[in-house]
């Protein structure tokens, strides 16, 4: 089937390319008309913070349940200065006509004195206003509101006005994928020695992420998809798109080198590498969709969005790429100096765009000049001469494998020990959300946060709410006792008096609590746990009801705990399914068991690096990352993506090893042959992914940095320590036992062939629409860059 698909796409390449272009344009038009509705929704089950929000909705009109942004200001002349008051009031008036604004609390209201700092160096000079927004407001709309306010900010001497809160945070769209693309161009040219062969994977990846991210925008209108999903899709799509196309193009070129026609080479490449791509890509999709088990809309939206981009990229690799190979023909082997120089200049220009270095952008028009001049200037028209490929047993990879196989115990133990050492920080992993103190220092969000800390203390950025329904005839003295008990806790800086929904006949009560520590601090988490487990339970009997600790900080804590509790189910499902799939594919028990264990080692090591850099703050001077908890959804997302991507290399490497084992029957030599045949493409694919993902460490956004660093680290460890050290060492130790499978189990398992058939396709005719088949003309090496 795969060979027929490859030949069909080759024969009808104009139709296939036209269909992809049409779908891409049509999808873009539909997405532009429909727009998007990105939003973060935490549909938590009946955890305590949700119970508290329900009480606030029912008895207090939803006050405190929305998304709150702040307008923070500092006036050297004092916030009571008439000019300052007039300026700030004019800014707050801008929110009056915004329909998404639920409530405005101003320091100039009758009861607004509590919003003005009364102690410390900022006493009387720092104040803030709360802007509560509808919880369903999309981020693009919040960004629009913020932009309108920033443009209208007045200029008054001695007055600083900053917008705080995540909802008003500045978010700069990542541009580091441009850097990753530049590195990919250089690596592909170095690996292939051909500009055209380089352009095919890049083109397929761009088609995949173009249509995939369009699909993500459309999905946001029918399900809860966070805004970050688009950038995650670009990050993953660019990496896997180039990776998958690289595997297929490599196998295609091998077939050309073996003397096959273009049509035969395309069919065989799809029948071998294409199978591996489909299987590996399906594993990525399954891993991502495993996050649906978490039953949280925010996480499910991320999972479906990322899986959609990967699925589209797989489709492009299996249909669009064969068509493009049909256009390229044997010219994929030909490179002229004009093309090579122009490609290098394009990569240099992309670096300039990614780093904001304007002088380097001039490389783009220079590349065009080189291409035009190459049509007339003799040296630029010359073909780049490549050395013929070495036999497998003379390659560095073959010699490396034999060296490892001579010392299997030493290599296996040292490699496993290295990964275990890197994984040690995982035992200190703390899940939670970072706060505004992790934004870059020059942002208004960070400066608003620091003004509030200076004027009111760190806990003011993450207040708690406690709510309780009151039974008829509730003891109000017991309610007052709750206030006293909360105030006596050393982690509480301030607690408001009890506020009733109806002072004459109260049916619900709420308290505002300000901790002594910031929202992301472990002491704040301990305060919430202490209030719930120690402080409140002894008093609830006297009131006759339970008191719920809620608010944004409590929601984040509950969300983290909930995801942690669901994590084992997700991990177990992905690991079990991967084990079963690999067992069916490779007809072995030990090979899939080793694959699962080694992938766990590499992922654990990458988690350790993440904890050290992002939670402990190691190398913060270089990374620009301030210490904070690890976002609770990030380990799951990293696991799903990395576990799936690592299967790319696992399937590609082991399928070649098994292919050699079937051919020779020698379990040890087949390891070296398989590694020699795949080392170059695995190294190139991994290097591309490492640079694409690693380039995101240059972004300002902490979450983008974290995901890029985690993915780059995991891929680097997997492609080096695991594939180049652990795999050959363990395969040598087990020998023929690698492929052992009980006969009764072999009879029960379905047959799933991902190796395909590398033999020549003895079909030398090309179907002609509406007529008989006619012989295919041999391609000639003409033109091309």
Automatic annotation (TrEMBL):
The compartments listed are: Cell membrane
Q: How does it sit in the membrane?
A: Multi-pass membrane protein
Q: Name one GO cellular component term.
A: plasma membrane
Key words, A-Z: Cell membrane, Membrane, Transmembrane, Transmembrane helix
Q: Which residues form the SSD domain?
A: 214-327
Q: Which residues cross the membrane?
A: 178-197, 204-222, 228-249, 277-296, 302-325, 337-355, 361-380, 409-429, 569-590, 597-618, 633-654, 675-698, 710-734
Under InterPro entries, the record lists: MMPL_dom, Mycobact_MmpL, SSD
* Origin: domain of life: Bacteria
Protein family according to the UniProt entry: Belongs to the resistance-nodulation-cell division (RND) (TC 2.A.6) family. MmpL subfamily.
Its protein name is MMPL family transporter
Question: Which species is listed as the source?
Answer: Actinomarinicola tropica
């Amino acid at each position: 089937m795969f060979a027929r698909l490859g030949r069909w796409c080759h024969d009808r390449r104009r139709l296939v390319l036209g269909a992809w272009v049409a779908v891409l344009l049509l999808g873009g038009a539909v997405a532009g008309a429909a727009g998007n509705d990105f939003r973060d929704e935490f549909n938590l089950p009946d955890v305590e913070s949700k119970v508290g929000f329900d009480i606030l909705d029912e008895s207090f009109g939803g006050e405190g349940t929305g998304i709150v942004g702040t307008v923070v200001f500092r006036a050297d002349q004092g916030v009571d200065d008439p000019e300052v008051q007039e300026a700030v009031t004019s800014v707050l008036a801008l929110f009056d006509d915004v329909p998404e604004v639920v409530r405005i609390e101003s320091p100039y209201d009758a009861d607004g004195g509590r919003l003005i700092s009364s102690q410390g160096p900022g006493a009387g000079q720092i104040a803030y206003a709360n802007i509560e927004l509808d919880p369903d407001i999309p981020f693009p709309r919040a960004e629009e509101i913020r932009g309108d306010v920033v443009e209208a900010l007045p200029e008054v001497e001695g007055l600083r006005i900053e917008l705080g809160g995540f909802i008003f945070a500045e978010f700069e769209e990542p541009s580091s994928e441009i850097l990753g693309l530049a590195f990919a161009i250089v690596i592909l040219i170095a690996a292939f020695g051909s500009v055209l062969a380089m352009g095919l994977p890049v083109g397929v990846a761009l088609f995949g992420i173009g249509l995939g991210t369009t699909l993500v925008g459309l999905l946001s209108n029918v399900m809860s998809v966070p805004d970050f999903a688009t950038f995650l899709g670009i990050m993953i799509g660019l990496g896997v798109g180039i990776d998958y196309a690289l595997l297929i193009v490599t196998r295609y070129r091998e077939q050309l080198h073996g003397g096959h026609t273009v049509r035969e080479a395309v069919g065989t490449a799809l029948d071998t590498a294409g199978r591996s791509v489909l299987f590996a890509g399906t594993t990525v999709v399954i891993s991502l969709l495993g996050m649906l088990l978490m039953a949280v809309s925010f996480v499910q939206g991320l999972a479906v969005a990322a899986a959609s981009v990967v699925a589209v990229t797989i489709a492009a690799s299996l249909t669009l790429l064969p068509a493009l190979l049909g256009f390229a023909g044997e010219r994929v082997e030909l490179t002229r100096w004009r093309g090579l120089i122009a490609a290098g200049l394009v990569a240099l220009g992309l670096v300039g765009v990614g780093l904001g270095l304007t002088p380097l952008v001039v490389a783009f028009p220079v590349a065009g000049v080189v291409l035009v001049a190459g049509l007339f200037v003799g040296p630029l028209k010359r073909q780049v001469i490549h050395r013929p490929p070495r036999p497998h047993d003379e390659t560095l990879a073959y010699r490396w494998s034999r060296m490892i196989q001579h010392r299997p115990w030493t290599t296996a133990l040292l490699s496993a020990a290295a990964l275990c050492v890197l994984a040690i920080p995982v035992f200190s992993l703390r899940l939670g959300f970072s706060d505004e103190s992790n934004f870059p220092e020059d942002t208004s969000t960070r400066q608003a946060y620091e003004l509030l800390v200076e004027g009111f203390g760190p806990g003011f950025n993450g207040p708690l709410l406690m709510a309780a329904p009151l039974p008829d005839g509730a003891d109000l003295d017991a309610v007052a006792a709750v206030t006293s008990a909360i105030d006596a806790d050393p982690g509480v800086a301030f607690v408001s008096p009890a506020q009733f929904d109806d002072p004459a006949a109260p049916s619900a009560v709420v308290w505002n609590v300000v901790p002594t520590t910031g929202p992301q601090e472990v002491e704040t988490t301990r305060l919430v746990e202490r209030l719930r487990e120690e402080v409140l339970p002894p008093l609830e009997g006297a009131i006759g009801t339970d008191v719920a600790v809620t608010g944004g900080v409590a929601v984040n804590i509950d969300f983290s705990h909930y995801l942690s509790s669901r994590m084992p189910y997700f991990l177990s499902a992905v690991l079990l399914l991967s084990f079963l799939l690999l067992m069916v594919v490779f007809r072995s028990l030990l090979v899939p068991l080793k694959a699962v264990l080694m992938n766990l080692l590499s992922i654990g090591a990458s988690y350790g690096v993440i904890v050290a850099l992002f939670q402990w703050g190691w190398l913060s001077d270089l990374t620009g990352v301030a210490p904070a908890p690890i976002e609770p959804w990030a380990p799951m997302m990293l696991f799903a993506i990395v576990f799936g991507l690592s299967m790319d290399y696992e399937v590609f490497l082991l399928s070649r090893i098994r292919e050699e084992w079937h051919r020779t029957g020698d379990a040890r030599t087949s390891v070296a042959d398989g590694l020699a045949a795949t080392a170059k493409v695995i190294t190139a694919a991994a290097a591309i992914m490492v640079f694409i993902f690693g380039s995101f460490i240059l972004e300002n956004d902490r979450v983008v940095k974290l995901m890029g660093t985690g993915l780059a680290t995991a891929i680097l460890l997997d492609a080096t320590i695991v594939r180049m050290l652990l795999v050959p060492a363990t395969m040598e130790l087990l020998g023929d036992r690698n492929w052992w499978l009980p006969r009764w189990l072999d009879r029960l398992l379905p047959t799933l062939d991902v190796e395909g058939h590398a033999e020549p396709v003895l079909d030398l005719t090309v179907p002609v629409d509406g007529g008989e088949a006619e012989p295919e003309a041999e391609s000639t090496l003409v033109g091309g860059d």
